[in-house]
Amino acid sequence: MARKNTNKKPKTNKPTTTTPPPKESIFQTMQSSKYLYYIGMAIVAIAYIWLLVLQFDAKVTAVIDVNNYYFLGKSLAQGTGFIDIMIYPEEQNAHVHFPPGYPVIIAIAMLLGFKSYFAVCVMSGIFLGIGTLVFYNIFYRMTNNVFLAVAAVGLCITNPNYLGFGYIGFSEACYICFTAFCCWLAINLFEHIEQANITWKRFAILVVLNAIVIIAAYFIRNVGMTIPVSFIATAGNLLLLNFISGKRGNTIQYNTIQYNTIQYNTILGT
């Protein structure tokens, strides 16, 4: 019988080829920077101030509604009450057209020493700028992308109608600012509820702050009534979904962008 050849060749490990990870694009590299968010915010702030100064027109600000707001605030600052000192100074009639929220803010500014008409216009620009930066934060949280957030806010500040509220002295700029804060606080509250990681103390603080901002927005402009209605509707919707999910023993999974987009639109009443 022929003997079997037991001298087998040792097995050699074939060299494994590893594919290098795909290179990140310049946008992905910039997006991963922790400072990019603040760079985007600085770009928005600088562009807003620059465009506001370019568009500012003192003649446009001299309209009757702005004068009404100014003299109502002056009346409150002087301690004479919420009366029409511009139209009927001798009759001392209580004003019944504009809500008192914005004149109260003007009166506070006057008591702090900012009594000129120009100061009221500057105050409007500050309110609109703060509201714009808050919306920048909201857009960033919706998309998790600085470039999209800057682009979205850029569409706002390059709109002359939107930017006009920053120097005309109307109550719209103040209302936009309080609305932005209301949305931001509500988003924080709803996100904590959805993630089920909120304590009763934080829940109470967020609810109280939301209530204060909602009441302030309502007394600045009566259209602010849409904010509490939308807030209650959104909160009720979330609680109902969580209740149904708990009954079925399931956990609701939200698509972040779609869920936040629906949520923000609901809060804005759109």
Task: Give a quick set of tags describing it.
270 residues, mainly alpha, 2 domains, 12 helices, 0% strand, disordered C terminus
Care to describe what's here?
It is a single chain. This protein has 270 residues and is mainly alpha-helical. The protein folds into two domains: 31-170, no CATH class; 171-270, no CATH class. It is 67% helix and 0% strand. The chain has helices at 26-31, 36-55, 58-61, 64-78, 101-111, 117-143, 146-157, 160-164, 172-195, 200-220, 226-248, 256-268. The longest helix has 27 residues, at 117-143. It is globular and about 80 Å long. The N and C termini lie far apart (93 Å). Residues 249-270 have low confidence and may be disordered.
- Provide the structure class: mainly alpha
Major sheet = none
Number of domain units: 2
Helix content: 55-70%
- Estimate the global geometry from the Cα principal axes: globular
- Average per-residue pLDDT, rounded, comes to 75
Radius of gyration: 28 Å
Q: Order of helices and strands, N to C?
A: HHHHHHHHHHHH
Distance between the termini: 93 Å
Enumerate how many helices there are, as a single number: 12
